[in-house]
Amino acid sequence: MRESFGGYCPAHALRFSGITHRVEHLFSPLEYQREMSEYATLAGEIVACCPELRYLAGDRSPLYFASDTSLPEYPYLKKLKVYRQEIYYIAPLLRRLCSLESFELLQSDVYDGPLDRVLPPTFRLSTLSISYTNLSPGQCKWLFASSFQTIESLEVEEVGESLGYLSEVIGGCLKNVHLKSSVDGTIKALYMFAGLRRLRISESNFDTEALLRLPSSLETVAIIFSEQSMSSVLRLLHSNWQPSLHSLDVYYSPSQPVSWQLIVASNQCHANDLQRACAARGIQLNWMKFS
Known about the structure:
The protein is of the alpha/beta class. The chain has eleven helices and eleven strands.
């Protein structure tokens, strides 16, 4: 493969996608494993020829790098996104991403044993997104210890106890957290993020008691537009929760009313109460469209 590129390819962005569920049934289990293995190895060889990459994405375990794979440094690669990827298979690559700033893990498997025998990454991330991926304390340390002073934004969804483990590694520098779903288990771990400035919760039902135990450092809170979420925030505001709070963002979808008058009409009681509670505390209330 390297010979076909002359050992070098000037690509700036690459995305590899494995066999989709729509055609997976056309292969026997053995054929499927062989095809995926060959594809992942080929994808790894292509990446090894592209030292000028700015963006790399892999879907459904499409990347594989053997421990002895010869890889260049990737000084321009700032963003990596992997989906259903065994992290051990890209561990040699992670070590070469010295300039990586954004890392997104979705439904990706991490195994403790093999990682213990691989040198950890040295990148210094600023943003991290983890969804449907459970990490152990050792895995969190291996992946993110080099970023303990630089990660400022974290987005999580269905991560189980991983948020608590992450807080032990990156809790000191984190400023912005977005909880996307199944938030109650993760909210309980937020008290370990002492310097948190912005919290966004994208679920209507959340544990207000756990939020009451957060350190008083928040400046902005964001919720979704629903009767339940607005009622919960009202209770928090009336208890003088988070004295440093100066902004409340309420997100609504484009299919919901867009003008303030229609928003009030659709849920007048809670919308008016929320406006009065914010005004009483000098908090700016912002109605935001989902992007």
